[in-house]
Amino acid sequence: MEKAMFGAGCFWGVEDFFLQVPGVSDAVSGYAGGSSENPTYKQVCGGDTYHAEVVEVTFDPAQVTYGTLVDLFFRMHNPTTRDRQGPDFGTQYRSVIFTHGPEQARIAAEKKAAVDASGKWKSPVVTQIEPAPTFWKAEEHHQRYFRKHGGHCHVSYAELAAE
Asked: Rounded to whole angstroms, how far apart are CA atoms 163 and 112?
């Protein structure tokens, strides 16, 4: 099993999306990339810690490649809006890929460049690509939020797979 870490706006939708992907065994909502240890949702939403809402994805590379996960990441949100996805705004909602090692960094950079060159978006892709920092698991009530409460805020995996 391998790990990947993505930030694409509200972590509830990102987590729910990746849990639908065949080969993904787990997706956990949390925080990464900020300045404080063990941040809380309230601190992160206050904007003072610079943490992003992220999802740590555990996957089986024999069933789904890291490159496929990155492709899905770029298709499931708008990577051209700085610090914003839909109605949510602030640095905690930035588009970011935190990579685990040089191979993931290379793949993420290549995929970002391809999306940018594709002409799909009128604005440049602003997704940050950085080495994975410490991942801080979000409070339990944020885990599997949409499965507990219903709702969605991103396109579903089934919708993308049908395209």
From this structure: 20
